[in-house]
Amino acid sequence: PEDNSYKTLSVETIGAHLGAVDAVRSRLGGNADGWSVREVGDGNLNLVFIVEGPDETVIAKQALPYVRLVGDSWPLPLYRAFYEYHALSRQAARDPGLVPEIYHFDEAQALIVMEFLSPHVILRRKLIAGEKVVDLGAILGRFCARTAFYGSELYMQSADKKADVALFAGNVAIPAITEALVFTDPYFDAEMNAHTDGLDPVVADLRGNVDLKMRVQRMMTKFASNTETMLHGDLHSGSIMATETEARIIDPEFVQYGPFGFDIGMLTANFLMAYFSQPAHRSQADLAGYQEWILSVIEATFETFQDEFRRLWRDERQGMFYPQVLFEGQGHDPMPACNALLGDIWTDAISFCGIEMHRRCLSLAHNADFEDIEDVRIRAPLEARNLTMGAELILNAESFADAQALCSLARQYN
Ligand code: ADP
Ligand code: MG
Ligand code: MG
Ligand code: MG
Predict the structure, then answer these.
(1) Residue 330 pLDDT exceeds 90
(2) Is the C-beta atom of 69 inside 6 A of ligand 1?
(3) Which of 110, 237, 279, 370 is least surrounded by Cβ atoms within 10 Å, i.e. has the fewest?
(4) pTM for this structure?
């Protein structure tokens, strides 16, 4: 039976609501009346409350029935909280410790109560502020490799994987956002688009390039139809929270089954946009060093992704893909097949990377790396570098041998 009890919570009502949940009340301690509550949602979609009790502090994230960035003219199903909850559970098993621990899930209220990450801050803010995170690339590369491998039939039994694909296939409205805002709208004059003054000639070039649009549509075909693994689906620097030495992943409500290379490609684009935006955020003395650090994170992410994927391939391959009977069982080295697949993943990742670099400057939902640059005469040329490099990635995805080649190209455009 359908439960229609959903009510949007507020700073005033959430204490009483959570006070009635034993697991949450005992964790926070004291009385709900005495808890302090703040709403801190800075994302595009949901309410996020910090609820602080005498013993502990938790995060309560509630889906709204519409897109927060736009308002109730754009309805969005509450069921995305259900998928976010299940994505968090799977990610916690596949890379323990990387996602917030879940304390309580209430499907009817579209509400997830979880670990409060503190003193972590959103990585995008750190990149704008010029702050480094130790071993960031290794942490992110491992997360991408583990979730890619364990979420696929390299590891899962086929029946389990198919059941999970069926479960997540119910998350229709959220992928539709990506299909429109990422893969379609940037390449025509869509209603919700916006771009910085001064970019018209670059934008006209992109929209006039039919080869580019063909390739982007090919990637959307893969994104929507290929169920290689369970994706995070929204892995940008605003979905990572970090301290100087730790990084954690949040906000997987865009979860879906999709191509192996999607998450790492989107992530790489967000580092490249941080890179291109730096001249507006750093003094000349700090600029080159910090930009090189960003590129070193991209390289480390890919190196670790490959190393970890190869390790898992060697030691934990137990699903129906590339079965041992065909390789080890007949005396073959299993690694050439792994390396060939990694090559395909890399090519897809480069293409997705270029597409993400486009959409963040052209459609709805821009990123603060560029958006925080108030002077459009400074912002536009930096975004133009990013857009032009993005097109080169999409058009020549096959020609990038490795992350070093990608970073060399970034240096040329910088
Ligand atoms: P949305 O889906 O609306 O983008 P997010 O899950 O990204 O929502 O959360 C929005 C903001 O809330 C984050 O940018 C972060 O500042 C804060 N936040 C979310 N989850 C946590 C958490 N577990 N710990 C601390 N802060 C969090
Ligand atoms: Mg978010
Ligand atoms: Mg903009
Ligand atoms: Mg989100």
Answers:
(1) yes
(2) no
(3) 279
(4) 0.97
What's residue 2's pLDDT? 64
pLDDT at 175: 95
pLDDT at residue 43 greater than cutoff 90: no
> In this structure, what CATH number is given to the domain that contains residue 360?
3.90.1200.10
Closest-CA residue to 25 (of 6, 59, 53): 53
Residues 46-53 have a mean pLDDT of: 97
* CATH code for position 23: 3.30.200.20
User: Is the predicted ipTM greater than 0.90, yes or no?
Assistant: yes
Q: Which amino acid is at 300?
A: A
Residue 2 lies in a domain: no
Q: Does the Cβ of 40 fall within 6 Å of ligand 1?
A: yes
Task: Examine residue 7 and state whether it is found in any structural domain, yes or no.
Answer: no
Query: Which residue from 50, 61, 178 has its CB within 8 A of the most atoms of ligand 1, so it is best to mutate?
Result: 61
Tens digit of each residue's pLDDT (9 = 90 or more) over 343-400:
999 999 999 999 999 999 999 999 999 999 999 999 999 999 999 999 999 999 999 9
Ligand 1 atom closest to Cα of 46?
3
d(CA 239, CA 44): 12
> How far is it, in rounded angstroms, from Cα 148 to Cα 146?
5
Question: Could you tell me the residue range of the domain that residue 178 belongs to?
Answer: 121-413
